[in-house]
Structure formats: C-alpha cells, structure tokens
Amino acid sequence: MNFSLSLSLSLSLSLSLSLSQKVVRYNAYLHSPSITYCSSVNRIYERDICFADIVIRFEDFSYCDYVQARRLKSDCLKQQTSNNVKCVGNTFSEECYTKIAILKDDVDLCKSDSCYTAFANKKSDYSFCEIIKNPQDVDGCYYSVSNNEDFKDFNICEKISDLSYKNSCFNDFAGKQNSVDICKKITKNFIQNTCIKKVAVNLNDISICDNATDSDGREYCRAVINKSKNIFELYFAMERKSKLEDCELLPDESKSFCIDTILNPEKVLKDMQDTFNDRY
Predict the structure, then answer these.
(1) How far apart are CA 163 and CA 182, in angstroms?
(2) What are all long-range contacts of 99-105, with beta carbons under 8 Å and residues at least 24 apart?
(3) At what angle do helices 93-104 and 3-11 cross, to 10 degrees?
(4) Top-confidence range, 52-56, 148-152, 168-172, 235-239
(5) Integer Cα distance of 124 and 147 in angstroms
(6) DSSP 3-state assignment of 220?
(7) Separation CA 77–CA 130 (nearest Å)
C-alpha cells in the first residue's frame, strides 16, 4: 500500500476504522501540527494515522520522519519529489485531489465531478454544478446543494432533469417553506398529495387539504389533521393507487403482473411458490 493510498484510507469514513481511530483522526484535524500531540497517541497504527493526516492537511512532509511503519514512511518521503506530491499513484486519486482542493479552497485543483459537487455544497453555489460533465452527476449536485440548510432558492429544482430528483427537491423546499405553491410543482400526484398534507399539518390548517389532486388525497390529508383512526388505511389506499398508475406506464407484458402484485399479492406469492416447487 503506497503512502497516498494510506492517506486516502485514513481520511475516508471507512468502516474499517475503529471509533478510537476516528477520534484520533478528528483530534488531529482540530490541533495545529504537533509532534507532541501525535506522539502522545499510544497505538503505533493510530499514531501513524495521526502523522499521515497532518502531512496531507498541512503539506508538511517533515512529519514523514515520525511515521514508524517502514513502507508507509518510505512512500511518504518519496512523494516529496513528485510533481503532484499528495495524490500521485493514489488508487483513490480523485478523492485525494478533492480533499486538497477543498483544503486550499481552489476549484482549479479539482480532477473530478465529485470535487465540483463538494465545492457547490461548501459554497451553497450551484454554478459549480454546471461545470460537471455527466448529466446524472449534475442532477445529483443540484439536489445536494438544495439540501443545504442555508440555501433558500427553490428554483434550483427546475434545473434538475431527473423527475424523481426534481419532485424530491420541490417536496423538500415545500416542507421547509410551508408552500402549497411549491407542492403544486410536483408532477407525481402521490408525492404532491403527501407534500400538501405536510404543509397542512405544519400550519395546522385543514383547508389546505382542498389543494390535494384527488378525493383520496383530500380525505387522507383531513384524516391526518383530525387524527382519524383510518389514517393508515387511507394512506395505503392512496399509495396503492399511485403504484397502479405506475404499472400503467409499463410495457403490456409486464403491466398485468405489476397490477397483480399490488391488488393480489398473496396470490402472486403463492403462484411463484408453486412454480418454484414444480421446478425444484
């Protein structure tokens, strides 16, 4: 394992790191470069992580001298003569460049779409999303920025091409701003109705339920406000109707099976079990 790969692993939120190792990494980030601090870490592996984090965070390769694992230390020292000292030869080089770009606050250091997304999030500025080449990543970037607490412009949702992302984006903003008008921008009836219900509940205003797209949605919304006992029955009826609408969009050969799984799930399960028993 080369040095830069080790750095990437030590900086990532890897499940392989124990809680104590994560605490060491976090504390190293809070402290200024300190030989005394890292030297105070008892376990050798965790101490090496501490120095490795400081090397990449503060670009101070003098800390390579304090890494004890021989291969890690050797690779660390070799990186000093490289043109791209921190990320050369790194299996996770995109992640590495992203970390450096964010630390230096320099978007020109980005080497990947995920880096531009990271900048867009950091700045709450979706103009960085527009640099991204992959259309799916652009949508993900817009949606990610829309979830920032300090971002208030719901018009960002209009920029999202994927309907699922777009509807979720409008739904989130409508809930935060208690806006029925934003709910009405959602194209899927089921999501729009649950959005309107959310606003009605937030404002404790049953009249808002009148904005639901159909009678099922209005009845469900009112039941929630009134704390009716048949809330769940109404919800699942509304959800079932939405799923049936989705089935209608499928090719003919798949449509009937889709409808059966919703209306007659027990029969479908029995038929599948019978087929399995006949074969095996």
Answers:
(1) 15
(2) 99/11, 99/56, 100/56, 103/57
(3) 70
(4) 168-172
(5) 9
(6) helix
(7) 38
